[in-house]
Write a structure and sequence with these properties.
The structure is a single chain. This protein is an all-alpha fold and 49 residues long. Helices cover 63% and strands 0% of the residues. The protein is built from two helices and no strands. The N and C termini lie far apart (69 Å).
Length: 49
C-alpha cells in the first residue's frame, strides 16, 4: 500500500456518513421555506382569506 504517505493522509478526516455543512444548510433553508408556506396556508384558511 502507500506506506510512504503520512498516516494522517491515509485516513479520512471525518466520518463519511456524516452530512456536510452545505447539505445541512440546504435542508435548514428548505425546511424554513416549507414551514413558512405551511404556516401561511393555515393562516389563510383560519382567517378565511
Amino acid at each position: 500500500m502507500n506506506d510512504y504517505l503520512p498516516k494522517k493522509e491515509l485516513e479520512p478526516e471525518r466520518d463519511p456518513r456524516q452530512p456536510s455543512f452545505a447539505r445541512i444548510a440546504i435542508w435548514v433553508i428548505v425546511g424554513a421555506i416549507g414551514l413558512y408556506l405551511l404556516g401561511s396556508g393555515i393562516w389563510g384558511i383560519v382567517t378565511g382569506g
